[in-house]
Amino acid sequence: MSNKRIAVYPGSFDPIHNGHLDIVERCLPIFDELVVGVLGNEAKRPVFSVAERVEMIREEVAGLSGCKVESFSGLLVDFMEEIGARTIIRGLRAISDFEYEFQMALMNRRLNPDIETVFFAPREEYSYLSSRLVKEVYFLGGNLEGLVPGRVLARLAEVKDERKVGEAE
Length: 169
Ligand code: ADP
Hints:
Layout: E1 6-11, H1 18-27, E2 33-39, H2 50-61, E3 67-72, H3 76-83, E4 87-91, H4 95-111, E5 116-120, H5 131-139, H6 150-168
Parallel strand pairs: 1-2, 1-4, 2-3, 4-5
The structure holds adenosine-5'-diphosphate.
């Protein structure tokens, strides 16, 4: 294994929003490489395919050196082994995130004792933001300016248009 400090920021990112990007920017200076790991979890019935989510994130992190975007399925610890990563990055918004995140961190440590999970707190204005809320608010016509990158808003607009066409048929 190389001595490079490689961290993985795993998640669904359906879609990526400014809270996620805030975490990426906060942890980048601390690691040699950060891999945003997009989970192909179809059980969550995502709006965007894994390939679309990877592409959207790549567009947003294009200017950040040391940041890569990959998709994975199966166990996170197996993906980490493959790419030589030792650290899991997760965002902690509120106490409500804590219990689930704590369980996952301990389970991942049990699966591979060499792996540590590190939590980052986002900027306050993003602390209530989630991909679920982004989708709900967007499809109900709410304004998401300042919370979601412009390119992501454009992709959401395409989905909304496709849905309208689908409904009209
Ligand atoms: P998952 O399905 O794994 O929860 P998400 O895409 O919802 O995937 O979130 C990925 C990671 O980003 C999680 O650690 C989550 O806590 C964190 N996160 C989500 N929203 C925010 C936010 N607004 N600020 C900081 N971290 C966030």
